[in-house]
Amino acid sequence: MNLINESIGNLALSGTVIFNDADASPVQADGSAIVTDDLVPLSRGMLPGGDGMFSGATVTLTKVGGAGVVRVVAVNPNASAPYDNDWVEVPLGGNLRDDFFLSTGQYRLFDWYAEGVAPGEATLELKFENGPMPVKDRVVLTVVDVDVNWVTFSGTSCHTVKKDDGSGDFTGPHWKDADGDGDGHGHAEDRRFPVVYLRNTKPRLSASLTFVPADVFSGAVRVRSAGPQGYAQAQAEVTPSSGNLVMLEVEADKAWADTVDFFNPLRLDWRVSADGGTVWLDAGMSENQAYVTLAAPVGARLYHTLAHNSCRDAKGKSDPSQAIAAIWSDFTDRAVYRVDPTWANPEGTRLKYYGDWTTPHTTTAGLLGNADGQCTAWAQFFIDALKVQGIDQDNDYIRIESYNLPGSRGFAVKDWSLNDGPYKTPRAPEYPFLGLCMNPFITGSSYAWQCTEATDGNGITGQGQANPASLFEFHQIVFINNKYYDPSYGVEYNSILEMDDNAIASHYIADFGVVRCETDFDCDMDGDGIMESNECRISDYYSFQPNPSGNQLVEIVNDH
To answer: pTM for the whole thing?
Structure first.
């Protein structure tokens, strides 16, 4: 609440505006200071005569009229931390003589301040009674409640952010307090939407504010926003209309930093002034996640998490190579998170690589929408994070296959062990180790074999998954600045040979949906203890060989 003095008697006001933060204490939240800047000082006169004149007297401060509500606090002007007994609320209606006026009173030298609590006029009366002729003074105050309702960010360098769940875009108003409680969250129509800007540009801001009483302002009113380090500070003179103030498309005074930046959140204090900027009335605060990018985002995949993570990781960077390294660092611990748009979970939701071994998701959108995805989704996710920063290189999307081996259908990512057993494979002798699949083949986080000489051990940890799926016809990675990045596992390679040596355990050929008999595999498929040439069924099976020395992989180059 804000307080405007309309009539001053001997109970003098030396200022005209106060702010109510719903807390009677003037002590700063961290306890480091007593703050009176947003309170209106009250000066009370002391008649000569000493304590004798107060003998038998009563001194009261009372609210005697008006719908407005104020409180009065007394503050020790010579206070120092820890401020335990350095302020007190002045009780309305009680006898203030002993504590506030006698020379022995513990609060006698304290300064008085008024603070608005509820809007409207409030008349305070200070009365001295000692005999039939009381002495009294009155002051009429107007408490003004000014609140910001919504805020919209705009400008040529402002880019619309997509929702991670694919349900649409975060469009203006980007902040909205639908229920008037001042926090912009908790109500179904409240908003705290993210915004993206290009570095070294100035945002534009629009805002709507309401004030009560609706007729308190008769002329032009200045509206001002103030952000951290002077960012997003804009000011405009607007004409009041039926208790409303609307500021439209006002350019901020200061450009964003000339680096990637990250505000989580960007808090803007809103104030209004009816006297040309001498006194400013508090109008509340708005909060938004604000992201400042290295260059203009490329493409249409400007998802919330991509903007959040890439700007957080590359904060302070102005060089593309440094930004790439910083963004990549988020992948190396294999703990990448999707941001929570409600802010309820500060950490967010951990994204996984084959958290479910049957995950069908192969795009950035699928990964973000379901918190799980295949290698193609993870490769696209990393590239799209770079594109948010305007980093877009040709031939960056690399498909890895094992075509160097004749007939090969795929490879097994470490660790696998191949052990000679009693089985045989019907096809190429170069692939002597059998893996005959059960149906279903994938159960949880493991492969189910009816007869096998191949064993999957815990190998390379994937994103959010200690033991991801590991049999693949291909694998998708990223090539940037002459380096191979594998976002699925959070590792990087200088060459495909290095990837082959460090990641590939074996290669396989496979047949799916073919008719095979027990004697084709030397496997008792029906479990009756008899190997029968006429016991046949539709089968899926793998034939493995160990990974030979040297590079057996080839890369197929594409753009994403």
So the answer is: 0.87
